[in-house]
Amino acid sequence: MTSPLPELTALEARILGVLMEKEKTTPDAYPLTVNGLAAGCNQKTSRHPVMNVSEAEIQTALEELRNRLLVLETYGASGRVLRYAHNFGKCYGVPAGSAALLAILMLRGPQTASELRANCERLHRFGDASSVEAYLEELATRAEGPLAVRLPKAPGSREHRWMHLLCGPVSMAMENEPVLGPATDPDRCAVLEARVERLERELASLREELRAVLPPSTGD
C-alpha cells in the first residue's frame, strides 16, 4: 500500500468486520447477501456498539467500499443473488493474524490482548497473549501509518486495551470509556450477556473438574 486509505465510517467498519468474521465462521454462506450483512451488522451479541441499520444504509456503504476496492461483488455459484466479499488484507497489506485482530476490534470495540486472543479463536489461533501483543505492536508502528493504538488501562483493569484506527484517531472519550461501554441499555445488555455466557462456560468446566477429583457420593 503506497498511501493510507480513507478513513472508514462506523458502518463501513462494521460491514468489513462482519464479512471477515463470516468468511471464517460460516464459509458456506460466504460471500454474503445484503440481507445476510444486515443480520450480521445488527447482531445483538458479540457486537459493540449494537447497531440497528437498514438494508438501504448497508447498500450505500457497500457502494462506497466497492469504489475503494475493499468490497468485491459476485453472484456466487447460483448466479442469481448479488453477494459481497471483502478485500481487506490485500488493500491494507496486512497478514492474516493482523486482519483477524482488526476484524474483532471493528466488531467488538476496545479489548485487551487476552480478550482479543479469546475472541479471535475462530478467525485465527494465536499461541498466547504475547503473540497477540506482537501483532498489535506491529499494527501500531507500521511505516505506512498505524492501524491500531494502545489505550490507557481502564479502571480496575490489569491490562491495556487496544483499538483500531481504521475510522480515524481514537477520541479521549473512548480512551476513558468504562469496560461496559456507553450507558445505553442495548450495549450494556449485549456486553453483560456475553460475560454471563462466558461465566456459565467457566462454571460448567469447574464443575467437571471437581467431579473428576472428588470421590463419588455414596449416600446414606
Furnish the topology, listing elements before pairings.
Elements: H1 10-25, H2 34-41, H3 55-67, E1 71-74, E2 83-86, H4 88-92, H5 96-108, E3 111-112, H6 113-119, H7 129-140, E4 148-150, E5 161-164, H8 172-175, H9 185-213
Helix pairs in contact: 1-5, 6-7
Task: Describe what this molecule looks like in 3D.
With 220 residues, this protein is mainly α. The chain has one domain: Arc Repressor Mutant, subunit A (Orthogonal Bundle), CATH 1.10.10. Helix content is 49%, strand content 8%. The chain has a 3-stranded antiparallel β-sheet. β1 and β2 form a beta hairpin. The chain is globular. The chain starts with 9 loop residues before the first helix and ends in a 7-residue tail after the last helix.
Average pLDDT: 86
Alpha plus pi helix count:
9
The assigned CATH architecture is Orthogonal Bundle
CATH topology heading: Arc Repressor Mutant, subunit A
- Element-by-element helix/strand order: HHHEEHHEHHEEHH
Low-confidence stretches: 178-188
Tell me the number of strands: 5
| CATH homologous superfamily designation | Winged helix-like DNA-binding domain superfamily/Winged helix DNA-binding domain
What is the rounded Rg? 19 Å
Question: What is the CATH level 1 assignment?
Answer: Mainly Alpha
> Gap between N and C termini, in Å?
74 Å
Shape: globular
Q: Strands across the major sheet, in which order?
A: 3-5-4
Strand content: 5-15%
What percentage of residues falls in helices of 4 or more residues? Answer: 40-55%
